[in-house]
Amino acid sequence: MTSSAPHAATDARRQLIDFISADAVFHGDFTLTSGKKASYYVDLRKVSLDHRVAPLIGQVMIDLIAQVPDVAAVGGMTMGADPIAAAILHQGAARGLAYDAFVVRKEPKDHGRGKQVEGPDLAGKRVIVLEDTSTTGGSPLKAIEALRKVGAEVAAVAVVVDRATGAREVIEAAGVPYLYAIGLDDLGLT
């Protein structure tokens, strides 16, 4: 790692926070997945599918998960985790890292091979479950269950934006470490 790497990581994170704040935070009256009301909504798909922002997400998330050893693949519940996993896969490849990606369907397919987890064979491999924003922790828990059924070892859950609404506690209570890149303070939402 060169001496400019920490600066580059900080710069990518700062740029990502700026994009999220400008383009993915909406103010008003919203009902969250949990049924709770909120005065703001973070819609990460507004930026995770943007050509300028996806590489930043990949860089920031790779820096976040670098502390987790021996990770073979990243992914989570479709749809929110898909662009995050793709960003990590591509930015990882650019850095010479070998992160594969996977997708977890809500339900197993009722045709073809009937799979719920798509991508490389994950049996016996360490994986990280991704989520764009966290609210209840329900999506990562569902992904964890599906991944364990195929023999994967879930090393952590990694979230781009943590809403501080209890997901961390739920995930950690299930015995899985919880990591996040950006909190509400970073977005000026506390």
Structure description:
With 190 residues, the chain is of the alpha/beta class. The chain has 6 helices and 8 strands. It has helices at residues 5-23, 45-48, 54-65, 82-94, 138-149, 167-173; strands spanning 25-31, 37-42, 71-77, 100-104, 117-118, 126-134, 153-162, 178-182. A 6-stranded mixed beta sheet has the order 5-4-3-6-7-8. The protein has a two-stranded antiparallel ribbon with strand order 1-2. Helix 6 (167-173) links the parallel strand 7 (153-162) and strand 8. Helix 1 packs across helix 3. Mean pLDDT is 92; it is low at 1-6. Homodimer. Belongs to the purine/pyrimidine phosphoribosyltransferase family. PyrE subfamily. Keywords: Glycosyltransferase, Magnesium, Pyrimidine biosynthesis, Transferase. It comes from Agromyces neolithicus. Orotate binds at residues 135, 163.
Query: How many H/I helical runs?
Result: 6
Q: Residue-averaged pLDDT, rounded?
A: 92
Globular, elongated, flat, extended or rod-shaped: what is the shape?
Answer: globular
| Secondary-structure element pattern, one letter each | HEEHHEHEEEHEHE
* Helicity, as a percent range: 25-40%
Radius of gyration, whole Å: 16 Å
Q: Which structural class should the secondary elements be placed in?
A: alpha/beta
Strand count: 8
Assess the beta-strand content as a share of residues.
25-35%
The biggest sheet amounts to:
6 strands, mixed
